Amino acid sequence: MLHNRLNMYLGINKNRLRSSIFFMILLLCISFGARASTPPSGSELPSHFIFYFANNSSLLMRDYYTNQTALEKLDQMLKNPDFISGVDSITIFGSASLIGSFQVNSRLSYERAMAVRTYIRWKHPGVYNDRISVLPSVFNWDVLIDLIQNDPLVPYREETLRILNSSVDNQLKVIQIKQLGGGSTNSYITNNFAKYMRTATSVFFSIKEKKEEIKEPEVIEVQNDSVPIVVDDIEEIVEEPEELPEIVSPIISLQQKMYSPLFALKTNILYDLLSGLNVEVEVPVGEHFSLAGEWIFPWWLYEKKQYALEILSGNLELRYWWGDRTGRDQMTGWFTGVYAGAGLYDIEWKTKGYQGEFIIPFGLSGGFAHKISRNWRMEYSLGVGYMTNKYREYIPQKCGYDDEWHLIKQKSGKSAWIGPTRAKVSLVWMINKK
Fold first, then answer.
1. What distance in Å separates the CA atoms of residue 389 and residue 406, rounded to the nearest whole number?
2. Rounded CA separation 430/159 (Å)
3. 370 closest CA partner among 381, 360, 362
4. Can you tell me the distance from the alpha carbon of 337 to that of 104, in angstroms, rounded to the nearest whole number?
5. pTM above threshold 0.70
6. Is there a contact between 112 and 53 (Cβ–Cβ < 8 Å)?
7. Angle, to 10 degrees, between the axis of helix 141-149 and the axis of helix 157-164?
């Protein structure tokens, strides 16, 4: 009896096991068949691409930054017939930067967009050629707005965002931004963001809207009643807002430091080589002006007072720095100025010497300065002015009861001079503020 029940139990379990194995194999076949019959989804591919261009260039280079990867993904997308069948249009936005002329940037952004369209038409002929539109946006404002919102160090940040979000035309936006803070905002944008703005030439794909099929009301007959009941099985269709393509912006570190010149310390190398120690301090005043003060102070005696170089002199100078200061470091480039100064001197060369006082009531200067590193610069200048001089000529002589050297006055007089009164080759050390 027990033996029969055991055989019956094993038989039932074997049947169940066989049914379970068959059912699992059937599910795997159905799943595999469904996957094999489903075409690759285009939604897994990006909905937009960003291509990079070199400065002042409209040549689409495959090996420039991430263009190689972007072009490979673009080719994969345009070769997928299932994705292409769902594409309504392709839009190419060409962009440039704030640097330079607005008209030049307009032409450059158009040429960059056309370069991308030419690639698509050449590599994928017949793919929506009549639906590819080119929009030279000149500047990618979305990228700039995102950069400024993530960087609290931008000068006049709130005013800049207000201008960018306004409805005025692009050229007027550029003009207003360049006027903010005497050009400080534009300089910061140029130095930190221009390289991202000029490379943001993008390709966007617009997908066709899919129409939902409306189901017919289902009629269900209830067993207890002969009257059919109509059940509305139409689900409410909620239209989801179309997602805007994500624009990837570079990460701005909050620890980034911005430097601007506080003042400059200078020394004239020509005077230093002649033992004429000197120092000059120059302070920037706005974008185009600076104020400088110089002090010359050699006070040397040699060979028991037979040689002397004693000068105390000071002067002030107001300078104007020429040219567009956008994107240029302060106190660099060409300048002109006006200066005035005065001093006293005692110069002796063994058998003859001169003492006196001089005044330079007016002079004109001009020169050029350039950077040699972040904090060091070189400056070259020449000054022409009017100088008056009251002098005394003497000879040194060892005489008297003490048998020491004395200055014996020979003559005195006054003179005037119009011509070069200064020449400089200066080494400049910039003191910056954060």
1. 24
2. 30
3. 381
4. 34
5. no
6. yes
7. 160
Q: Tell me the three state secondary structure of residue 18.
A: helix
Sheet of 48-51, strand order: 48-51, 201-207, 87-95, 132-138
As a whole number of angstroms, the distance between CA 307 and CA 350 comes to: 6
Asked whether the beta carbons of 117 and 239 are under 8 A apart, the reply is no
Residue type for 163, please? I
Domain boundaries, the chain: 44-208, 260-433
124 Cα distance to chain centroid: 36
Q: What is the distance between the alpha carbons of residues 280 and 273, in angstroms, rounded to a whole number?
A: 16
Q: Determine the Cα–Cα distance for residues 357 and 281; give it in Å rounded to an integer.
A: 23
Does 425 score more than 90 pLDDT? yes
In the structure encoding, which two tokens stand for residue 162, read together? 């207000």
Confidence bin at 173 (pLDDT 50/70/90): confident
> Looking at beta carbons, which pairs linking 317-320 to residues 24 or more positions away fall under 8 Å?
317/291, 317/292, 317/293, 317/365, 318/289, 318/290, 318/291, 318/292, 319/282, 319/289, 319/290, 319/291, 319/292, 319/365, 320/288, 320/289
The CATH number of domain 44-208 is 3.30.230.10: no
CA-based radius of gyration for the chain: 41
Question: How would you label 4-17 residue by residue, b for 16+ Cβ within 10 Å and e otherwise?
Answer: eeeeeeeeeeeeee
CB 133 within 8 A of CB 90: yes
339-387: per-residue pLDDT in tens?
Answer: 999 999 999 887 888 999 999 999 999 999 998 988 899 999 999 999 9
CA distance 317 to 362: 10
Contacting residues for 271 by C-beta, under 8 A, at least 6 apart: 277, 278, 296
Q: Which CATH number fits domain 260-433: 2.60.120, 1.10.3210, 1.10.1450, 2.40.160?
A: 2.40.160
Determine the Cα–Cα distance for residues 64 and 132; give it in Å rounded to an integer.
24
- Pure H helices in 259-379: 269-273
CA pair distance 327, 196, nearest whole angstrom: 16
**Residue ranges of the alpha helices (H) in 262-411?**
269-273
Contact 370, 377 (CB under 8 A): yes
Q: Which two tokens stand for residue 136?
A: 């030279």
